[in-house]
Amino acid sequence: MVICSVLALFSIFSKSMAEARERTFIMVKPDGVQRGLVGKIIKRFEAKGFKLVALKFTWPSEDLLKKHYADLAGRPFFPGLVKYMSSGPVVPMVWEGLNVVKTGRFMLGATDPKDSNPGTIRGDLCIQVGRNIIHGSDSVEAANKEINLWFEPKELIAWKPASEAWIYED
Fold it and tell me: What does the entry list as the binding residues for ATP (predicted)?
């Protein structure tokens, strides 16, 4: 009877782990690209165990950026943000994994680098908020919206890394 209960709990736990796997949108901003930090950022997400499912190197239009940052359109810094983000190439990516949205945001650190802990991307690699090198989705809903804005469905690659069994228990 105890074994059945343990197996039932394990089954529920495994199911919830599988359901918590999600996708997030991460973008290296023009300052991160210009500083040659794309590889370091990718390395951190790979080392954590997340799976890269899409990546591109692109120079975004102001129209695309206005859609991406539409929730900030009423803020006084919006025009400068769009101008800055369209000033050079960016590297948008989609990462997949267990709780990747929340964990990804934690890995990025606070929006303002001075408030970011050492060990986070912004805490280690940035000084000012206007040059915080990276964007990450703040919710699953935002991630889905951003992924659909930047990538066509055919650009999202479904694959299973050989290391997956060494990262996840289920």
Answer: 29, 77, 105, 111, 122, 132
3-class SS of residue 61: coil
The annotation status of 21 as a binding-site residue, yes or no, is: no
Indicate the number of domains in the chain. 1
| Whole-number pLDDT of residue 103 | 98
Task: Look at residue 66 and tell me if it is in a domain.
Answer: yes
In 3D space, the residue among 141, 23, 164 whose CA is nearest the CA of residue 93 turns out to be 23
pLDDT for residue 21: 85
What residues in the chain have per-residue pLDDT under 50?
1-17
Any bridge partners for residue 28, and if so which? 91, 134
Residue 165: its pLDDT value, please? 93
Is 99 annotated to bind a ligand? Reply is no
